Amino acid sequence: MSELIKREIERHGEMRPPWRAFDFHPFSLGWRMGAGEDHMAAFRAWWSERRAEWGETERIAYLKRWPGRPGWTYQMIGLVWDLNAIDLLPFEEEDSVGDDPVDDVSPDGAPAEPEGLDRTAWFARGEAAGFPSLAASDADLYDPSWPQD
Hints:
Blueprint: H1 3-12, H2 18-21, H3 34-53, H4 56-65, H5 73-81, H6 119-128, H7 134-141
């Protein structure tokens, strides 16, 4: 177990999700360098173990213990139901990051959801589980009140 994971567990009882460790926008460069990148990598390692141990109920309970801004909902839905979160973003096809074959693979290496993923249905399922709505998530992603890099 990494030192960062050990420290998180000692301080918080479990690993905090990225949105609770740093107040970065989900697309911030802060996740690609420095402490944000370290936390994200440690969280992914920690989550992959939890994913193998926890079912849907435990995953949802964990995320409810650590709520985030609505803009993070796409990540929460991806974590609960093992979806490639990028497929849940509000991008038009020509704006999508999925042009790179690496982006078409989920974090565990499995193929991403097939084209045509129904964002509305997945967000409705997330909302039924207690997560913010699709409209709230999309609005928050473009909210100028996020801290700037």
